[in-house]
Amino acid sequence: MANVGNQLPTQAVSKPAPGKHGNVLPLWGNEKTMNLNPMILTNVLSSPYFKVQLYELKTYHEVVDEIYFKVTHVEPWEKGSRKTAGQTGMCGGVRGVGTGGIVSTAFCLLYKLFTLKLTRKQLMGLITHTDSPYIRALGFMYIRYTQPPTDLIEWYDGFLDDEEELDVKAGGGCVMTIGEMLRSFLTKLEWFSTLFPRIPVPVQKIIDQQIKARPRKVAQKETQEEEATFAESGRQEAGRRRSRTPRRTPSPRRSPKRSRSRSHHRERDRHGPSFDRELERERDRQRKEREGRDRDRDRGDRGDRERRRSRSADRNQDRRERKRSHSGSRDRRNERRDKERDGGDDRSRRKDRDHHKDRGTERERSRDKKSRGETEDRRHKDDRERHREERKAKRSSRSRSRERRHKSGEEKSKKRERSHSRERDRERDGEQRSHKRSRSKERSHHQRESSNDHSKHSERRRSQSTE
């Protein structure tokens, strides 16, 4: 099987580490949906039975007790809840695609077991349980949905010839043994109106070869039953002649002739002493749990009896006290009636006086309210007038401030223009002065040059005259 596992495509399998975590089960496929059909999963999660009643169950033993009392078949849908007549193709009643219905309690409890994350010991306790075959069927179905395909034949090997019977169809009519159910789990992909997870082709070939090579031991039982039926045919015919009423067959779920022991010699030959030890441990643990439950029930019954006795004594005392209180209350009532008869007139007069006083006080209160309302209205009017005057004053002050700002701005602009004109005049005066100075300098320069020329001419004349 290890060689086959190496050839398979990779799947989401969480393998436990050997040794310390040997009690932890691996999960194959999707760890959130348990590889269930989406239609079935949505109906399970939305069903009130799963959301309300199963939500309160927190332990493994509570879920096992719920299976014992509530499960009557292993079909995914309840009888008559899915109408698939007239549908063809993928919307037919084979794959559970088109229409939903009322999901069965078996599949709700199966998913509840998945949420508890069962260990190897707990799963062994399910498939070896002796109280109900439906507990074992849900355990085997849990293995089919969550365990790797390479491990299925190892889980089912010791139970393929199990002869315990159960009715797997909703409403009855499909009785089969545990071994036949497991063979259908291994060889067929469909289970009523849903599908199991697919087994890879090489693994399926190996499983088919092992099932074909293994002879079915149920055939011997069938031959014995046929011989017994032939031998008893005369008796049955005589009984039918006497009374035409048919006999009622015992239900497969609670059959009194069902044998709890499942051929320990065959299991020892296949699994060895380790498997026998595990079976013995599981059975001892189940016996201890039953004894503890019986003790708890006995204690609860005793406590209930003591409580009932104490309650009865308390009730008697309460009754006596009530009788005494009733007698005293009757005397008091009679006295009160006499007093009321004597003082009835006085009370009526007092009531009239009080009524007149109340009317006068109510009138005064109404007048006070009216006067208060008028004064409040006047105050509101005065406040409104004051607010209006203040608003007007604010508006006038704002307009004045705006005018002042406008005037000040105009004055500033005029001052700026005057300053600009003065600066322009000053610049013009400076330019004229600079022109005058430049002209005077030029004149002085010309005069100097002319004087120098004159002096030169005079010197030349002098020199000529001297010569």
UniProtKB/TrEMBL annotation:
Residues 213-467 are annotated as: Disordered. Residues 269-320, 328-392, 408-433, 447-467 have a biased composition (Basic and acidic residues). GO terms for biological process: mRNA splicing, via spliceosome. It is found in: Nucleus. Pfam families: PRP38 (PF03371). It comes from the Eukaryota. Residues 241-268, 393-407, 434-446 have a biased composition (Basic residues). Keywords: mRNA processing, mRNA splicing, Nucleus, Spliceosome. Its main location: nucleus. InterPro entries: PRP38. GO terms for cellular component: spliceosomal complex. May be required for pre-mRNA splicing. Belongs to the PRP38 family. This is Pre-mRNA-splicing factor 38B.
